[in-house]
Amino acid sequence: MMRRKFVAGNWKMNGNLAALAELDAIGASLEATVDVAIAVPATLIHPAAARAKFPIGAEDVHGQDSGAHTGDVSVPMVKEAGANFSIVGHSERRQGHGETDADVKAKAEACRRHGLDAILCVGETLEQRSAGEAEAVVTAQVLASLPDGAGGDWLAIAYEPIWAIGTGQVATVADVEAMHAAIRAALVKALGEETGQAIRLLYGGSVTAENAPGLLHAAEVDGALVGGASLTAAKFVPIIRAAIA
Ligand code: PEP
Fold it and tell me: Which class does domain 5-242 fall in?
């Protein structure tokens, strides 16, 4: 199945109003065959969405629409601010904020209820990889986090080995291909051939202009989730270019 390439950025807890100028240069370098989107801190969603020529998203959302959840933001809130999508289950949320697969599933389902796309992140620790458990851990995470109504029209899955995020240590193309094949097989088994094949699988973890060409054209790799290299147009645009079919 032909899936459009998708290059998504994640600014994490970086950026300010002045940094939004980067969005102009990125918007001027879009490619017709590549989907581009950037998740920004909640405070920047509104100005970023007003300015960018491509979808802007949230980095996290709560699973409920409103209530006593001090410090959280809901899908209706980020949607009103202009977000088209949200990342859910990033390892920095799973590890730093104790989010479970059930939380991540609820967040993704909240996105669907309100018409937002979601990028659902999964990934193993170095200890789990060293113990030979990576594929079992990651496919179990996928299945336990998978929202009801999962479909390629709104959901992408990002495989992000935790040891590769922000470390400069990139997974090998062979490791990424093996993991993506395992995730694809799990999706097809759970959702059937058509839906299981339609969901895009992104790789994330120290993607740069240098390693993007190899990773983005590996088997079953439909795009990338890019942290550090999404902060400037100078680093991000070459990754978009590398995704051209
Ligand atoms: C990420 O934020 O999801 C990520 C992969 O970060 P980096 O590209 O900086 O490793």
Answer: alpha beta
